[in-house]
Amino acid sequence: MPQFSIILTTYNRATVLPRAISSVLQQTYRDYELLIIDDASPDATHQVVAAFNDDRIRYIRLPCNAGVSTARNQGIQESMGESLVFLDDDDALTPEFLEETHRALQEAPANVGFLWTWKRVYDIPLGKANSSEVTYGVYDLRVQPGNRFFESAMGGTGGLIVRRRCLAAVGGFDESFRVVGDTEALIRLADRYDFIIIPEALYAIFNIESNQLTKPTMLRAQSIERLLQKNRDILRRHPHLFATFSRQSARIYYQVGEPQQGRRVLKQALANNPLSWKSWVLLTASEGLQLLPASARQAYYAKRSHKRG
Fold first, then answer.
1. 3-state helix vs strand vs coil in the chain, percent to 5
2. 64 CB contacts (<8 Å, ≥6 apart)?
3. CA distance 19 to 90
4. Which residues are CB-contacts of 285 (< 8 A; sequence separation ≥ 6)?
5. Residue 206 main-chain phi, psi, to 5 deg
6. Nearest-5° angle of CA 42, CA 80, CA 48?
7. How far is CA 38 from CA 41, 66, 81, 164, 211, in A?
8. DSSP letter, residue 143
């Protein structure tokens, strides 16, 4: 039984997948298995994986496209490692990722359920690679209380290391979420366990324009709203994050041409926290934008999304 099970979920990313696989095979710590869960990709994903000859790789293709949460749960079910590592198909690990993670886990107390490392983010518009570092405002290995996660929902599943027993205790990923399922699972994890940030940039994120999971869609707006409803008892203790998620959902509703839904979500958020000036600003601005042509509204939201990114 390996120490680590690396779960790499992929869909239609055959062109970038080799970078992610190669980064795993270059690890200095060798006690791991790599499970590649193909969510029924229509491209050459199978041929890409077959080109790698390593007995630690297991390739599992789902019979139909079921969403990333289902793919991750399938990987967890098939895996054997004590600790789970989640790798996105367009990202990469540095060679020391598992070695440093293993050291941190060995020294961590039992109440630490999950870890991240600092990340290096590469923006690749028009072929230019500009990088920045994500530190989460943490600069040492001290245990972070789970409540700190709720200050900003500080990380996603990419590069997440979680103890198997802890993820099992909170029920794994909710397969009804085709998007934002990683955030939804982390809310349940952070409500129960503490975590650690390793202060080294050991995970690389490559932002590519074809990332369909973060595009503003009705599904995304509805999923964020449902995340709020499902975890209302937890998020009620963290009104700042409740308001943040509400604004995200409302902004997308307005952006995809559903102002009534956006208005409804913001009014619910303001009923929960009437002193949230950001929610008032968003409501006022979004209602004002409805007086403009649709092209002008889309240009405004596109500019705002770029700034937030």
1. 45, 20, 35
2. 40
3. 8
4. none
5. -115, 105
6. 25
7. 6, 10, 20, 21, 16
8. P
Mean per-residue pLDDT, 51-61: 97
Token reading at 55:
């007995």
Amino acid at 84: L
User: Both tokens of residue 63?
Assistant: 């019979």
Global pTM?
0.89
Pairing of strands 83-88, 4-10: parallel
Q: Which residue has the tokens 């198997």?
A: 164
Look up residue 144 and give its DSSP letter. Answer: B
pLDDT in tens, 259-298: 999 999 998 888 888 888 888 888 888 888 787 777 776 7
Give DSSP secondary structure letters for 45-104: HHHHHHT---TTEEEEE-SS---HHHHHHHHHHH---SEEEEEETT-EE-TTHHHHHHHH
Q: Strand pairing of 130-134 and 112-123? A: antiparallel
CA distances from 11 to 20, 33, 35, 213 (A): 13, 20, 14, 11
| Cβ-defined contacts of 302-309 (< 8 Å, 24+) | 304/251, 305/216, 309/207
Query: Among 137, 12, 7, which residue's Cα sits nearest to residue 81?
Result: 7
Cα→Cα distances 205→6, 119, 199, 266, 275, Å: 16, 7, 16, 32, 36
Q: Which residues fall within 8 angstroms of residue 282, CB to CB, at 6 or more apart?
A: 247, 250, 251, 266
The pair of three-digit structure tokens given for residue 182, joined into one six-digit string? 């990683």
- The amino acid present at 138, given as its one-letter code, is V
The whole-angstrom separation of Cα 47 and Cα 24 is 18
